[in-house]
Amino acid sequence: MSPSEHGPHTGEVTGEFEQRARALLEDSVLRIDGRVRSRLNQARHAALEDALRRPSLWRRYSLMPAASAVAAAVLVAFVLWPHAHQGDAIVEGGHGTVEDLDLLADSDALDLVSDETDGGAFYEWAAEQSDSNETGTGA
Amino acid sequence: MPSASHGDVELSDSTTNSSSRALNQFLAGVELKAFKIAQAALRHEDDALDAVQDAMLQLARAYSERPAEEWKPLFYRILENRIRDMQRRRTVRGRVISWLPFRSEDDDDEQDPIAQAPSFDPQPPRKLEISEAMNALEKAIETLPRRQQQVFMLRTLEGLDVAQTAMAMGCSEGSVKTHYFRALQSLRAQLGEFWT
Fold first, then answer.
1. Closest CA to B137 of B177, B183, B190
2. How much is the ipTM here?
3. Do A76 and A137 fall into the same domain?
4. How far is A41 from chain B (nearest CA, A)?
5. Residue-wise pLDDT tens digits, A47-84
6. Residue B66 and residue A58: Cβ atoms within 8 Å?
7. For burial by CB atoms within 10 Å, which of A30, A104, B35, B174 has the most?
8. Shortest Cα distance from A74 to chain B (angstroms)?
9. pTM over the 0.80 mark
10. By the CB < 8 Å criterion, does A32 face chain B?
11. Sign of CA dihedral A38, A40, A45, A49
12. Is A48 within 8 Å of B2 when comparing Cβ atoms?
């Protein structure tokens, strides 16, 4: 018999040999005894009850994306929360740092600090200004 | 079919009910053929029952919500995996036992002498003829290599098409065709005297 006459090439079991084999096998299925049938019946019921009791893997896996998203959000929140406060501190501190940098970069301010001829006149003036402000407000 | 009031199982949901009913119907439709396939592979009734039971459980647990058209190839895929596991375990056990010095004849599977005794039930000639042909076929199938046996049973007994058989066996459709062709050749060669 050529391969083209065989079932596998046509997708169907068509040959006489296969049909006879199928008939015999189906007959042997019908002859399965009561004990085996009973055990298969019990096994089927157990499987169905088990499936009803627990959600299937399919259902569990369908919830996986949502669960993963929630877990990821919580993780990100935990990781970023301390850094958020640190960021504030850096910004606050950064403000003072910027002012210091401005003072250092200001050549006039440096001149005032290091002016030898003035003999610290700037500080005296600043102290007077401070005192006068206090008396002014006090009056 | 489990009753609606069984334990803490709530079957009020009509979707669950109809899905469970469909699965019950499917399993009831395949269980006997699945048992024959497992028995041909394992050559042991209780092992075959265990394999079918495990496959049912696995399908119901993991794939009951998949489309019903997918159940059959999935079920036979699970069954084949289970059969292979059992065969491997049996091989390992056989090797271990063969090394044991204190092995006795009692270690072999006990066979019920009554079950092994020839039946004196008179059979009509036609029935006897069918029975002999069936025995010859089953013995010939048992001699086939595992993959050929698998593809022959799935195609011939269960009636899976090439694509479904390929899915159940986890191989290509070309492989299915080749294994099936070789199985038929081998069976024809063995059964020629009975079937001509």
1. B190
2. 0.73
3. no
4. 8
5. 999 888 876 555 556 667 777 888 888 888 877 776 66
6. yes
7. B35
8. 29
9. no
10. yes
11. positive
12. yes
At residue A120, φ and ψ (nearest 5 deg) are 80, 25
Domain that holds residue A35: 3-106
Contact B49 A56 (CB under 8 A): no
Which tokens is A102 given?
């401005």
Give all domains of chain B, ordered by start, each with its CATH number: 14-97 (1.10.1740), 125-196 (1.10.10.10)
CA distances from B56 to A30, A61, A113 (A): 20, 20, 91
Count how many pairs of residues, chain A against chain B, have C-beta atoms within 8 Å.
137
What backbone torsions phi and psi does residue A19 show, to the nearest 5 degrees?
A: -65, -40
pLDDT digits 0-9 by tens, A88-128 = 555 555 555 555 665 556 555 555 555 555 556 767 777 77
DSSP assigned state of A119 = T
Q: Which of B171, B123, B133 is nearest to A21 (CA)?
A: B133
Burial A108-117 (b: 16+ CB within 10 A, else e): eeeebeeeee
Structural domains of chain A, count = 2
